[in-house]
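Milestone M4 deliverable, item 7.
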Amino acid sequence: MTEQKPVADLTREEAAQELAQLASEIAKHDAAYHQKDAPVVSDAAYDALRRRNEALEAEFPDLVREDSPTKKVGFAVADGFKKVTHRLPMLSRGNAFSDEDVLEFDARTRKFLSLGGPVCYTAEPKIDGLSLSLRYENGVLVQAATRGDGAVGENVTTNARTISDIPQRLENAPSVLEVRGEVYMSHADFAALNERQAEVGDKPFANPRNAAAGSLRQLDSQITKSRPLKFFAYAWGALS
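Output delivered:
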């Protein structure tokens, strides 16, 4: 890989050209990851592209493009699924790769909340799967939607109903309750699934996240039903 020129040493023309290249390359990787559930680069390589893009935009803020990766969440829904407009946007988490990134996050938090004293944080493991929004009306599951681009997702209600972790009814629920969480696959279930894939001559999945995402986003719900999917709820969206 060719060594990159430091951002601070780039001319405006060089920065603009590289930002255009990064926007195109990252968009292709987003489509492979979010639409096809088949990434072609490692997470580390993808994150490096995003960090380079962010560094360029910080150095040249007037060159930020309309199609910049920093203005997008996820990717547009794929053909074959009906669209669902989220009542409240489904956003994604940011990444931190160093102590400096964490300190910068802390500084932004303090500034936003106008805090001067000690700030307490909680940390928890991140379940890596596919974000899903479940809408319950009068305690009955009426809709399940993927995050999509954050504003519009895919209607996967029929597939979500096949996941045993997702209840069809809730007792004593508000008249409208949107439960948000992650559809995922355990490492043990992932290994067993890939063994079955190999036995029948099918291509193995790259990792548990893509196995879970690809399993949920099947046009045939029976395929989804045959996969060992789980659901972990961590937040709510629309609420009456």
